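Handover notes (outgoing to incoming on-call)

Open items:
1. Transglutaminase-like domain-containing protein: sequence verified, structure written out, both below. Nothing else pending on this one.
2. Nothing else urgent.
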Amino acid sequence: MIKALLALLLFFALPQAFADALNICYHYRCSRHASFELSAEERDWLAARLFQADTAQNEREAVADAVQALYFIAARDMPIWQDKGGNFHDGPAEGRMDCVDHSSNVTTFLRYLDSQGWLKFHHAAPPEWRAPHILDLHYTGVLHDTAANQDWAVDTWFKDFGEPPVVVPLSVWMTGYEPPAVPEPVKQASNSKEGSTP
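Transglutaminase-like domain-containing protein structure tokens:
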């Protein structure tokens, strides 16, 4: 999947004729707005990726790929590629985004995918918010599984720009869910004693 997304990035860098435009926001609390355009080829890629999904689970995975790709496309025209996960690692970055920006953008992306008729098992739902620890206010985009009548959080705020969104049941997200930290690689200690084996 990584190779496919890298190929997609190279493909997006080529000059193309544009078919659709989307508006997104950034710089915390949606204080800055900008639009970006999708080429016919990019639109076709999104449609094909979602068409491959033959179950609700597969469609959520395809939606995660589509959201990731739409952010990459948007980053051609705006500085959102500087965004870091959470709210404390961005510094003064021009393209920083908080959870308000992320939830708004993801909702825009989900509504776009839905409006094109590409979602067979889900519909875009309004964003949701949580405050499990009073001051820990957080927003997310939401995808509704129509057959199971279940909502799923689609949250791009946790990770640095370019990472796929976290997609978890909204009921789990509401409890204060955060994705597990990626463990640091373990360095294997060398044993210098004679006769020792690794």
